[in-house]
Amino acid sequence: MAPRQQQPWATRTKHDRRDAYTRAVLLKAAGHVFAQRGYGPTTIAAITAEAGLSRAAFYVYFASKAEVFRVLAWQVRDAFLTAQEVPGTDPDDPYAVARASVGAFIAAYARHLPLLGLFEQRALADEEVAGLWAELQRRPLHRHARYVRRLAEAGQADPVVDPLSLARAVGSMSATWAALVAADPDAYEDAVHDVTTMYLHLLRVSPDTAHVSGDVRRGSAVGDAASG
Hints:
Blueprint: H1 8-37, H2 44-51, H3 55-61, H4 65-82, H5 94-122, H6 127-153, H7 163-183, H8 188-203
Helix pairs in contact: 1-2, 1-4, 4-5, 4-6, 5-6, 5-7, 5-8, 6-7, 7-8
């Protein structure tokens, strides 16, 4: 029997998977080194040493240190936008949306905190990063404000301030508590509980609109950040 020949598409798929894995390893290593050293002191040699790969392997995927940082910036931006989606949460239940969105935002912020400061700094020198940073500041905020406005217009909430101001306040609170979680991951559940409670007080949701009680359940927030 003639030996079975591997189809070209199968070889290509295997190669693509290997490429994707190697690129992911380099990105993870780059994120770690940038977070530890800062942008300036980070070198391609340090990234490849962290990844356990050669400099030649780095240049297969990235042209420069600046390029790999831009890719990381895109990943952070995408993480925060994804954090505004709350799959599995009843969109008509403001209490559930609040818990899920606050939990997701705090988790995303705490996870990416080491790179956020560098992201902001690089925005001053890199036009592409500046655009991503501006989008990261703007889109979650305005999306959250639109959500609050819809609740108010539907008579489901009576926010204590205008929707944009409320979105800013909740985003700021979430960022503050996320920094505590980054330092102490065990504080996550309490952070979600506290920020969600304050959010609901600012939102003043009508009890008639919720499918659950107004009590905020500890540890139930997982999802994403309609909260800013």
